[in-house]
Amino acid sequence: MQRYDSAIDMTGSDRDEDELPEHTKEPTVAGPIGPHMHHKRPLSPVAASSSSGPPSRSASPHSVHSPHSAIHSTDSPPNSAGHHDNTTSPHDLGAPLDLSLLSLPPVAVIPTRLSPEALHDLHEQLSAANADLVTTFPSDGQTADIHRARFFLGQINTPKRAAFELRKLGVHTEEVEAGTSREAVWQDDGLITVVKVEWWEKCLEKDGVQSINPYIVYVGRLTEGPPGGDGKKRALPSAEELVKEREMKRRRILERAQGDAGGSDSRVKVIPGKPWTKPNTTTSVDEEFGVKRPKLMRKTTSEYEREKGLANQVQPRYVREQLKLAVHRPHPLHCPNDAFINVLKTIKLSRTLQLDDIGIRAYSTAISAIQAYPYELLSSSTLLTLPGCDGKTSALFYEWYNSSPDDVSQRKIQAVEEIEQSEEYRVMKEFYQIWGVGAKTAREFYLDKGWRSLDDVIEFGWNQLSRVQQIGLKFYDEINFIPIPRPEVARIGALVGKVADELRPGYEYIITGGYRRGKEQSGDVDMVLCHRDEEQTRGGFLTMLVTRLEEEGWVTHTLYLGRGGGFGTQRVGEPPRSHGLAHGEGAEELEKAMVMWQEQDPASPFYKEEGGRNVSPHRRVDIILSPPSCVGTAVLGWTGGTTYERDLRRWVEKRWGWKFDSGGVWERGSGRRVELGEWAEGEDLVQCERRVIEGLGLEYFKPELRNTG
């Protein structure tokens, strides 16, 4: 039997069965335990008609006909019986209930803050009142086309929250200007009205449709949503759809990653200077996982002509010997193939936002190999000779190059165009750029919380952010869109070094990161501080330094001060051998301070003032304090590009069976320090770093040649 809430069944509300007319009472039925009374109150005419079928959409003499009456209906004077003309008293059981929503446009309920039971009851009540109900939970013939709804009920109190909840449902609007007449709501099909659910409760209480004016939260005009490929606005996927989608992604990730990374035993690679050998014909990993290979690319006459001109090019050593690790080749800051590398970086970032670690490594390796290539790539077959570049990368290059052979600025890849235009990529990228927010958290903001802009994060999630994330959001534009010029980086480093030397004479410093690799502009400032006397690096010196910088106004916010703390583990102390500790257990970590910095000297060219107030941009500064026992590895670990540092660790493990990090080189198992990286008498920090690199059996490349992207 269909259930009706007592709030709808107004004719029998708040009355005991003894008060009802005799013909409405249920008979007493004797049971095995005793008599049981079944209290079933009679349905109102609206509810009764619903019990035998769908609610009727035909108007009754008691329905509200005027398109504006649902908004502006007011209580009429009481009639002779003491009742209002437009309502029926609960005690007047013979009169029909005048609670029809026929005049309303399509109605939907915003489920936020409503329990499943309350949502179910509200849907039934609205259906019984002849509302044209639109629901996101299709059942019993109800439609799920949320974009048809123009009237929304919900537990909403502010316009911003209303717009946010609509956006979560895929309904994009902009608030109409203040003063817009509410009477135009039903006359303009492009307007959306959000009303507090209390309005409906008042209608039930008064047994009739009440004015919505006191309950209107938001009136907005429909706008075009973010592009979705088909030009339609799209609602957020349901929880079940998200689970299915993520499961499918997990199943496909290895297949896609295998396609990114190559790994096929049967792939033929032509290596200049080496004879061709027959490929392995056993089943490849690609075939086992069903990864489709790129189709054979047709080589044009122009490609043959271009390749003729490459015959006399001397291939670099890493190509001739197929050296895949980035530590075996120089990587200049700029190369002839920067435009194509930028396209691959977009794909790599999309893999990062998908938490696809294998894909990230594959594209990082390909980017590094291309960055080191000294010639302009003119054909996909040439790209295939580079270690770490497989058929998929070659296919991407083929599409990119041939999209506009004569104009590099017009070249493009369709898949990359779609990535850059997708809402998911653009929004998660914006979240990912908040300092302190990683890819996983950016995905949670977008997929789980439904946020679509930085304003959403501030409005609805500020109290859920960590202090570091709040600071990163506060200075979002300054961190991401106001780069630090080289002279300012040098000034910041010099100021920190000067204060350190004032506190304890003898301190030296070196600026690392992108500045040392030759970048004209940096996103932040990384620097290593060291003293030849190890005792001078202890005793809370870094805390003393940051405190002094705060007192002088240079440091405005301290994001992190300590050892490790989730920002990477660098061990500097050797664990006691008598304890037999495994590698890293009980070891000390490099101490570091991560701060926000602001210029304070009005005489500085980097100082800016508006209205007598310092508006100089805030800068991110990382200060690493290293003892002399490992300063060489500290400088090395904080200088190279990401792929260089990754491959450095792989090389040390593969070649020597050791573990490398910025705090030193360690034997696996025993955890003992390898005597490498200590600051020797008479050498500077650069010489100390070079001795570490050569001690690991690697060729020394200047910092300007470690730009692996």
- Work out the number of β strands: 19
Domain unit count: 4
The tally of helices reads: 25
CATH topology of the largest domain: Rossmann fold
Mean of residue pLDDT values = 77
Tell me roughly what share of residues is in helical segments. 25-40%
Largest sheet: 6 strands, mixed
CATH architectural label of the largest domain: 3-Layer(aba) Sandwich
Strand order, largest beta sheet: 4-3-5-7-8-6
Nearest-angstrom radius of gyration? 35 Å
Q: Give the percentage of residues in beta strands.
A: 5-15%
Given the C-alpha coordinates, what overall shape results? globular
Residue stretches low in confidence (pLDDT < 50, at least 5 long) are 1-97, 139-143, 227-236, 261-296, 565-588
Structural class designation = alpha+beta
What's the CATH H-level superfamily name of the largest domain?
A: BRCT domain
Could you give the distance between the termini? 67 Å
GO biological process, one term: double-strand break repair via nonhomologous end joining
Keywords: DNA damage, DNA repair, DNA-directed DNA polymerase, Metal-binding, Nucleotidyltransferase, Nucleus, Transferase
Domain DNA-directed DNA polymerase X: 335-707
Region (Disordered): 1-94, 257-284
